[in-house]
Amino acid sequence: MDAGPSSRRWSSVACPRMDLDTLRDDYDRVADTYVALGVAELDGKPWLRSVLTAFAEQVRDRGDVLDVGCGPGQVSAFLADLGVDVRGVDLSPRMVEQARRRFPALRFDVGSATAVDVPDGSLAGVLGWWSLFHLPRPLLPGVFEGWARALRPGGLALMGFHVGDGEQQRTEAYGGVPVSWTTYRWQPERLAELLTAVGLTVEVEQRFTEPWGSQVVIAARRRAVGAAAT
Q1: Is pLDDT above 60 for 130?
Q2: Domain boundaries, the chain
Q3: Closest by CA position to 30, among listed 207, 212, 172, 193
Q4: Closest Cα to residue 131, out of 34, 2, 61, 17?
Q5: How would you classify residue 216: left for phi > 0, otherwise alpha for psi between -120 and 50, otherwise beta?
Q6: 101: number of Cβ within 10 Å
Q7: CA nearest 165: which of 194, 196, 191?
Q8: Which of 33, 59, 62, 145 has the most beta carbons within 10 angstroms of its beta carbon?
Q9: pTM for the whole thing?
Q10: Tens digits of per-residue pLDDT, 40-76?
């Protein structure tokens, strides 16, 4: 994608190349099983759908929306059905292949959350739907800084995270496929601090206990021009 002269890399901290390569290869291996098992599909999850519906109401007809870490495209498709002008990016080429196969009318590209180039102020919304929890903690402030730059004034960011402290190492996933990745858990108040630090205002913090244990969804908005800081 040619982002133009006003774009910047989203993350100001470089992610170790091998970490990204390993993560990409792991998700390439699990992609087909992930789809076959229906992992993260929205059927039977009314509370998660309600959050996405509220997000769609906020960003619809206001510009482009980017689904970062889109996986096989189910959330992008849900938003598109609600009238959102959305496209997805994912680190895994195989996940992108699955998304394109399943939803051929939508646009999906290969790309990393740490290095997505978009023009400053070009997005009405950005989504990180349980797609950032593999990032080492030092990288997340830079990613959020990029989100703040990419959002237009009044634009909205929505993200989901596993709640807790510490990390969990995994050696297999989704039917026993071998992987080598880390899940980083976050406390909601710490995420709110990081978002506030880059100029985003947290508007919603919703806790869930299902479907994957303790989870949080946070919505944060880039202040409109002339709006007072809170």
Answers
A1: yes
A2: 7-222
A3: 172
A4: 34
A5: beta
A6: 12
A7: 191
A8: 59
A9: 0.89
A10: 999 999 999 999 999 999 999 999 999 999 999 999 9
